[in-house]
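Lecture notes, unit on protein representations.

Consider one protein chain, 321 amino acids long.
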Amino acid sequence: MMSVKTIMRSGLLVLLSLAMTDCAGFSSKNRDIDLVGHRGARGYRPENTIPSFQYGIENNMTAIELDVNVTRDKDLIIYHDTEITGALCLDESGKPAATVPIRDLTVEELKKYDCGALQHREFPQQITVEKTRLITLKEFFEFVKSYETERKLLHATRIKVEIKFPRDYTPEDIKEAANLVVKNIEEAGMTERAVVQSFVIAALPEVRKLNKNIQTSALFEPRYSRGAAATDVHGNPRNTIIKEALNAGADMIAPHYIFITPQFVRECHRKNLRVIAWTVNDKAQMEKLLSYGVDGIISDYPDILYLAYKEWKTKKKKYKL
């Protein structure tokens, strides 16, 4: 049987371990955590639509993430892929939409699709909303401001705008998209609330040239070679993506969660980079990442994310970490 002294020593070591893990970088005692609804609330409503954005805001998300594509008539439509597909949308006849590049369609043509009637095959809990139309970034900002005013919300939802590019994008495409995004953000008065992000890192400096007050976030996905190395503690792809984010002048780095370790978070914080993890749908994984010191988590399930955050926060308070 263990002695009382041994039990106390073990308990102290556990608490110290928790404290050291949670403080992975700068002091995080009162840090601001971004709870981000991925494409609104993709797990429960059709992605990148008003029903999805509304669900995310109503379920305690501090930020909403969405994707924009440049249309043929040089506007920004909110849609994840660079092509309309029958997996998400129906055409005017009610049949799965033919695959057409977004850049070949006008906003008027895009609004003819029903992108709420089909349930996403990966999200069985997703509730369909028939006759849901795509919206522009301008219309999204109008929705958010109106929604917050009508419901007298006490907090202003932050917006994470991801710029999407077709595979054959050019430097001119990058500049055009950056200009349109910045223009929309400025005209909506969202400069202080918006973050522009992209996997095309070259887009971030273009945004900063146009408005240095708009924050930017560098997205990184686990491509095969990089992803395999990301799990190898002896490799250094984490250092590589940190360097890429810094070279782009980014304020945040948003890698897939497999990149993230306590050491990675500490290094990012030393470089003044906030760390936002994507896309995390497992509650235990969320709590682990919060204990590592991340500054935000993107999830398809706002309710699970908020619950994980609340339980992690309660645990912190209990142990006074």
